[in-house]
Amino acid sequence: MSTQTDNRNPRREEPAAHSKPIVETSAGGKPRSRPGERAALDATRGTDRSRPLFEREIVTKAIRASLAKLDPRHQVRNPVMFVVEVGSVLTTILFLQALVGTGEASAAFTGVIAAWLWFTVLFANFAEAMAEGRGKAQAEALRRTKKQTLARRLRQPVSDTEQERIRTSEMVASTLLRRDDVVLVMAGEFIPADGDVIEGVASVDESAVTGESAPVVRESGGDRSAVTGGTRVISDWLVVRVSSNPGEGFLDRMISMVEGAKRQKTPNEIALDILLTALTIIFLLVCVTLLPFSIYSVNAAGQGTPVTITVLVALLVCLIPTTIGGLLSAIGIAGMDRMIQANVIAMSGRAVEAAGDVDTLLLDKTGTITLGNRQATEFIPAEGVHIEELADAAQLASLADETPEGRSIVVLAKDQYGLRGRDVERMHAQFVPFTAQTRMSGVDVDGTAIRKGAADAIQRFVECQRGTFPAALQRAVDSIAKQGGTPLVVASVKRGKASVLGVIHLKDIVKGGIRERFAQLRRMGIKTIMITGDNPLTAASIAAEAGVDDYLAEATPEAKLKLIRENQAGGRLVAMCGDGTNDAPALAQADVAVAMNTGTQAAKEAGNMVDLDSNPTKLIEVVEIGKQLLITRGALTTFSIANDVSKYFAIIPAAFVSTYPALGKLNIMGLATPQSAILSAVIFNALIIIALIPLALRGVRHKPAKATALLTRNLLIYGVGGLIAPFVGIKLIDLALVVLRLA
Amino acid sequence: MTAFIFIVLIVGGTAALSWPLGRYIQWAMDPAADVGPRRRGLDRLFERIAGKLGRDAQGWKKYILAMLAFNVVMFVVSFAFLAFQHYLPLNPDGMKAIEGSLIFNTAASFTSNTNLQHYSGESTMSYLSQLCALMWLQFVSPAVGLAALAAMARGLAGRQQMGNFFIDVQRATFLVLVPLALIMATLMVQGGMPMTLSGAAHATTLEGAEQVIARGPVAAFLAIKQLGTNGGGFFGPNSTHPLENPTFWTNVLATMSIIIIPMACVWMFGRIIGRMRHAAVVFGVMLLLMGTRIAGAVLFESAPTRAFASLPIEQTDGNLEGKELRFGAAAGPLWAVVTTSTSNGSVNCMHDSLNPLTGLMPMIGMWLNEDFGGVGVGMINMFVYIILAVFLAGMMVGRTPEYLNRRVEAREVKLAVLALLAQSLFILVGTAVFAVTPWGTKTLNNAGAHGFSEMLYEFSSASANNGSGFEGLGDNTPPWNIATGVVMLLARFIPIIVPLAIAGSLAAKRPTAQSAGTLGVEDGTFGVMLTAVVVIIGALTFFPAAALGPIVEHLQFMV
């Protein structure tokens, strides 16, 4: 949420109590969900976009796709799996050669090895196709919302009369709209393309994009002028200037991101790719040189036969990091997918990865750290006024006030003084709504006028009625302001006599659990900075209560930008979220910038992620997803490399036992025959890819902790586990082969 | 038990001494800005000697170029002295001309701090060759390594200018190696080692036979041979020769002097980067790796040699074949491990006669080549493994990997794996080629797996710039001379150039802030990670070769 001051938006000018949504769809309409309130929901609320891991439809498609991915032009992008594919082709040729009777080993053995090598490639393809399929399914859902509609294009956007404007308009297909076209959208119509509202105010149903059913207000100017194509105007009308050409809209970009069409390798992925390729080359050297070693050994020992190409290929495939190589792209795609499930659209994989590196979080106070609205916590009566009298007047003045602040006053009066809500209608009370001019609201009942508002507004009001503003109360007002609260003064005019009754203390309520969350972040080495437009005193008191590491008070866009730059100069990676146009420079400067979906087009352009829920607390989740992505890669790489040790113990004795029978002692797993040993290792190597697909798609479980604790934990699970697991797995497969009489 | 105490005292004592020495070496190599006037005077002297060359601070590229140019000069000078030794003075025993490929091999060997010797010094080299072609390189080549480490550490400390090579090499030679060698040589002469420029001594034995006893400036040669991880002996049998290693005490001193500078290098590195705790973790990992091999070697060598297996005798003193009995059974394996852990390569027993698994320990030392490694270059080699460990561990803590506050990205990983690849390429491909061609098979003295070990050892030794020989190999042939010569040169410079490039690339990056979320390189967890990376990568690369060499030999032995 932005902290700027915007003249067109009274809510921002007067952060106190008296604000009403500008558009009322029905008289005395029920309270409407607003971004601020939704943001106030728990940060980790369940996401509605998650889907089961294996959906039948996706699996079927993925199986078909994994065959198509055998195309070497596709495989060559992944050197590790490309080597496996080449090995599969080689062994298949050897199998065919054996079939015609001149093979280096039995056709059955070569054939089974070849088959399992093909399975290894297919399993890796399947993993990738699964991840892509989940993205595609997501994209499909989005695409359904992207209906082709007719748009009313205005040829004369500025006209004297409404009729004239509509008369000169033309109906065109939404796909023909270009940037800077101006369209008129009436109630009940779909907004044909992304754009900015240049005229009008309307409530818009954005559930197609956000999944949130409550409509939101869109108005020209200010920070809520952006509309998304595919959303529907429910009431009133809007004039929208189209901001994107066909195929470049927000939905299009989302679709192409989730489909992975534009997926580029991220920096860390490239580095890891290099490591994996190098390991592949090293193991290639190891296996290629084994042939001369073996020939020498056969000559020297005078017995046995040199190791066969089939066995060398099998050994090579077992040694090269196929587990991580096969799952690498799936992990990346799944990372994006998890973002989407959290209702965040990342503009690039790079952004997701950068999220894990963030060490400074800039969090707006309102909606993130505190509940969106202030709440009444105390009544302080003026001298000579009974506190019940004040509470009663305050409640009366607030009964018809639907703002959260107003409701909190009613609740406080009820809780503390047992004052029940009264029926305003029956009392013939007349509600006086808040206006930007009076900056007060209240009620007229039985000839008595009760008003509540900011101290200076009430003072003016009272003095106009020839009353006085007591000095003692002024002190109470100042003291509340000093504590970081908002004083709301209540006054009444009874029979021409104006008197000040007292002051209501409205306070920022720090969200439950947020303090623990910040402590957690601190343990992870992430610094939190609270951004607020409040004065330093107020900011400090809330900062202390919420347990943030630092705060920026009286924040201006310039101050925000400066803060980000300073942190970056100190070698920190900064994440922030924002929605206003004046947030755009800071969003562009931040390393990870989450724009609120309710925000302006400019903010969305400047950020590298868009949060569809417009929930600023999401930033914390985004960081965790980024970390999880990297951890999953690291853990599976470690696992993959650690696996190799056991494979040596399976294959080396098997390959050389005919030359050096003594090497049989290295067969510590007691595998049945040399052939079953090699086969078991190859089968294990292929199956482990399938077994780890859920882990790759879901990500390694990540608990916020210190780096050292994380490393110890992952090293134990994936390092030590990776050493031991294949010993068990290979032995079990070997036993199964024996039982099936395949050994 | 005595063997155990003996080893702990030697290794522990050296480790303790390396601490103050590390401090001294840092003072010599990378003096602080506020260092005293006398130390500054020395640098001014070095600058005057270097002249124009020593004036500017160099970035990593210029530093490497300067180092390579200097090494070309080293190689050419040494080549020339060897090629013309029969025309040159100081040749009292009338040594003949040397064969071409042997000259190449020897010049490459001493330039690269390997000191692989395909000849016997006392019957091939004139005194002038020993002194002017070989001995000065024994000072200068470790100085090059020390200079490179200082430069790399400066880069990692964030300095874009890594110093000036010509100043650094003088600092290393005159402030570190020469003074230490003087002290060591004096101690060795006290221990009974010859130090003379007169020709061989002639003696008449009790049987009346005439005996020619080779001698020469042995003490001077030995001191720098040990200290500079050179290993090239004055005599063919190296430190098994009674005049190159006369007593138990010279043996203890010589063993300590093999590892003291490589150990101190780790502390120097820590001081320059300003992270002593990190240095301590690295030191600990190195000590653990080396200690494990020492323990293994001593244990495996406590069994009698295979030749005794079928004989009706009881032998409880371990394998005494190929040992110098004046040092005892444990001194041999200790030296064997220490000399291969560092890229020293001097020997005090016959490695060929070690029990198979004992023989594996020196090989592992050369394959890893970083605990503690050669002077300067050991720590440089370890740095490559550190980068890999940081990369893997960094991902596992959920951040882009960082080392010393700088991000390790694609470029650094690419360079690091290049160094790793080069080493396996040299050892495995070299051995493979010689294993199936007469180049190798015709030169073996032993058949079977042991013959394979001999070839594997030779290439490992060349690639690790170690220089020790398994022996039993007729390696003075043109194919061996040329192949190992090329390997020694490439294996010397690639692992120096690549880490310097990494350090240069890291130095150019914006430093990142450190927090609880950053991977720490100063705790035991990182030590475990580093150990695992070194062991697993080493094991995965060389296990098959080891299985067909020493391991199968051992297993056959057990049958």
Beta-strand fraction estimate of chain B: under 5%
What does the largest sheet of chain B look like?
2 strands, antiparallel
Given as residue ranges, the uncertain stretches of chain A (5+ residues, pLDDT < 50) are 1-49
Query: Please, what is the average pLDDT of chain B?
Result: 90
The main sheet of chain A comes to: 7 strands, mixed
Rg of chain A over CA atoms, rounded to whole Å, is 34 Å
- Mean pLDDT of chain A equals 82
Write up what this structure looks like.
The complex is a heterodimer of chains A (743) and B (559). Chain A is an alpha+beta fold. In chain A, 50% of the residues lie in helices and 14% in strands. Chain A has a 7-stranded mixed beta sheet with strand order 10-22-21-20-11-18-19, with helices on both faces. In chain A, strand 20, helix 21 (584-589) and strand 21 form a beta-alpha-beta unit. In chain A, helix 11 runs antiparallel to helix 23 (618-656) and helix 14 packs antiparallel against helix 15. Chain A is elongated. Chain B is 64% helix and 2% strand. Chain B contains 18 helices and 4 strands. The mean pLDDT of chain B is 90. In chain B, the strands form 2 sheets. Chain B has a two-stranded antiparallel ribbon. Chain B is mainly alpha-helical and 559 residues long. In chain B, helix 10 (276-301) packs antiparallel against helix 12 and helix 16 (448-463) packs across helix 17. Chain B has a domain at 2-199 and 214-273. Classes of the chains: A alpha+beta (743), B mainly alpha (559).
List descriptors.
heterodimer; A: 743 residues; alpha+beta; 6-stranded antiparallel sheet; 25 helices; disordered N terminus; B: 559 residues; mainly alpha; two-stranded antiparallel ribbon; 18 helices; 2% strand
Give a brief description.
The complex is a heterodimer of chains A (743) and B (559). Chain A is 50% helix and 14% strand.
List the helices and strands and how they pair.
The complex is a heterodimer of chains A (743) and B (559).
Chain A: H1 10-13, H2 35-39, H3 56-68, H4 72-75, H5 79-99, H6 107-145, E1 150-153, H7 162-167, E2 170-173, E3 182-185, E4 195-199, E5 201-205, H8 207-210, E6 216-219, E7 226-227, E8 232-233, E9 238-242, H9 250-259, H10 267-301, H11 309-319, H12 322-341, E10 344-346, H13 349-357, E11 360-364, E12 375-381, H14 387-398, H15 404-417, E13 430-432, E14 440-445, E15 448-453, H16 455-464, H17 471-482, E16 486-494, E17 497-507, H18 514-523, E18 527-531, H19 536-546, E19 550-552, H20 557-569, E20 574-578, H21 584-589, E21 592-596, H22 601-606, E22 609-611, H23 618-656, H24 674-698, H25 707-739
Parallel strand pairs in A: 11-18, 11-20, 18-19, 20-21, 21-22
Antiparallel strand pairs in A: 1-2, 1-3, 3-9, 4-7, 4-9, 5-6, 5-8, 10-22, 12-17, 13-14, 14-15, 15-16, 16-17
Chain B: H1 2-29, H2 37-50, H3 60-83, H4 100-111, H5 121-124, H6 127-156, H7 165-190, E1 201-204, E2 210-213, H8 218-227, H9 248-273, H10 276-301, H11 331-341, H12 356-368, H13 377-396, E3 402-403, E4 406-407, H14 410-435, H15 438-441, H16 448-463, H17 478-507, H18 524-558
Antiparallel strand pairs in B: 1-2, 3-4
Helix pairs in contact in B: 1-7, 1-9, 2-7, 3-4, 3-6, 3-17, 4-17, 6-7, 6-9, 6-17, 7-8, 8-9, 9-10, 9-11, 10-11, 10-12, 10-18, 11-12, 12-16, 12-18, 13-14, 13-18, 14-16, 14-17, 16-17, 16-18
